[in-house]
Amino acid sequence: MKVAVVGAGLSGLNAGRILSEYCKVAVFEPHSLGGLAGSFCTGEYCIEKFYHHFFRSDDYLLSLLKTLKLSGKTVWKTARIGQEFNGNLYSLSTPVEILKFPGLSILDKIRLAIFTLKAKKIEYEKYDETGVIEGLKRDVGERLYDNFFLPLLKAKFGENYREVSYAWLLARVSIRSNRKLFGEELGYLRGGFHQLVERLSENLEIRKEKARIEKSGKWTVNGEKFDSIVFTAPIPELGSLGEKLGIKPVRYQSSICLLISMDSPFTENLYWVNYPNEPFGATIEHTNFMPLEDYGEHLMYVAGYTIPENLSKLQDEQLFRLWLSSLKKYGLEERNIRWWRVFKAKYSGAVYVKGFRKLITPYRLADGLYYAGLTSKDNYPERSMNGSLLAGKNAAELVIKDHLS
Question: Which of 109, 152, 306, 367 could form an S-S bond across to 310 if both were Cys, CB 3.0 to 4.6 Å?
């Protein structure tokens, strides 16, 4: 049996790895391996093009790291989180720092703490049809919504924020929040996630081709017949075939990451800082999380989101200049920058609109055609490495069940 896997992100590579134990597999990927988890290598080290970390609740990812003999590289660290307010950066990592933060009243801080505790216990799926604005205004009040949540929603979803489901926010707080006394506990693969990508792709046949899928009796990719196809790229890349199959359209957003190498740190010890009113949404200072000696230079991501139609509005140099002009207000000097790179992903994630559960793409699209990726149920209500790996696993197991058992 021959199976084609289209896309070499985490879903595709994991599906290919599992299927290769049972049949002949060809993976089609015109770009670099890893998809959104792909890396940029300097010759001295590799680092992800888009910031990545994982969580204690990512059971499948953690078990897979053990299977691939990478668990020894797993490290857990407490990351310090901050917020910009009136031109200053404030750490919100400890209870004392949160109490001192001038951007919220004491009453709103109490409301925020109560909301966080309650969200961890709520069955977020029940709020899939509820809008995030409606839910927040009801549960935390207008003022906390306006002063705290609204800027973050705009930074994350841009012009789509009004359509987002309350289930997304509740799940993010519930699943992703693992706060310790001095910050948020996050996991990372020391040395970089390129090691995971390399292990997943070992012994796989990777074809550096853009896949053209057609149906003429059997499914074909670029004219070659396959018994089954596992499609793991974003749904829009199916083109008219997606419409013919009746796949429900999903709204996507795009990601932009500016990766900066610096002679000295941007902040003293903050890993993640949110910026409510800048052209970017956050700075993620990687070497305030992982040891500087692993890289020999200070590294920081500057991250923003947009819609796919706006992704190419600014050239890399224009975007760098625009974002640098904002960063200068917080102390970054251009002479401190060694080099920079801009990375863009047109379809980096779904916009989790109200009623998104009805839009989840099934694993079986048609007889012999399967899907695993950003809009699979394992990536609801938010995409993650764990969800993408699980989607690849579940699609592969369905192929095996349908054709090999």
Answer: 306
Q: What pLDDT does 103 receive? A: 92
- pLDDT attached to residue 181: 59
* Cβ count near 370 (within 10 Å): 23
Which segments of the chain have a pLDDT < 50? none
Q: Are residues 74 and 103 in the same domain?
A: no
Same domain (yes/no): 201, 175: no
Rounded CA separation 149/111 (Å): 12
Q: Is residue 112 part of a domain?
A: yes
Residue 233: closest CA among 309, 156, 343, 346:
346
Question: CA 3 to CA 228: how far, in whole Å?
Answer: 5
Domain that holds residue 373: 2-35+195-251+353-403
The pLDDT of residue 95 is 86
Q: How many angstroms separate the CA atoms of 352 and 377, rounded?
A: 12
Angle between helices 10-19 and 194-201 in degrees, nearest 10: 30
State how far the Cα of 168 lies from the Cα of 127, in Å rounded to an integer: 9
Same domain, 362 and 306: no
Q: Which two tokens stand for residue 148?
A: 């705290």
**The pLDDT value given to residue 182:** 60
Q: Which amino acid, residue 113?
A: A
Q: What is the structure's pLDDT at 331?
A: 97
CA 100, 102, 106: angle at the middle one, nearest 5? 70
Q: What's the full length of the chain, in residues?
A: 405
Residue 147 DSSP one-character state: I
Question: Could you tell me where the beta strands, DSSP code E, fall in 190-278?
Answer: 205-207, 213-216, 218-221, 224-226, 228-231, 252-262, 272-274
**What pLDDT does residue 177 have?**
60
User: Which domain CATH number covers 392?
Assistant: 3.50.50.60
Coil vs helix vs strand at 234 = coil
- Render pLDDT for 69-108 as a digit per residue (tens, 0 to 9): 999 999 999 999 999 999 999 999 888 898 999 999 999 9
Question: pTM of this prediction?
Answer: 0.95
Looking at the 3D structure of the chain, how many domains does it have?
3
| Cβ proximity of 315 and 339 under 8 Å | no
Inter-residue contact 95 to 179 (CB < 8 Å): no
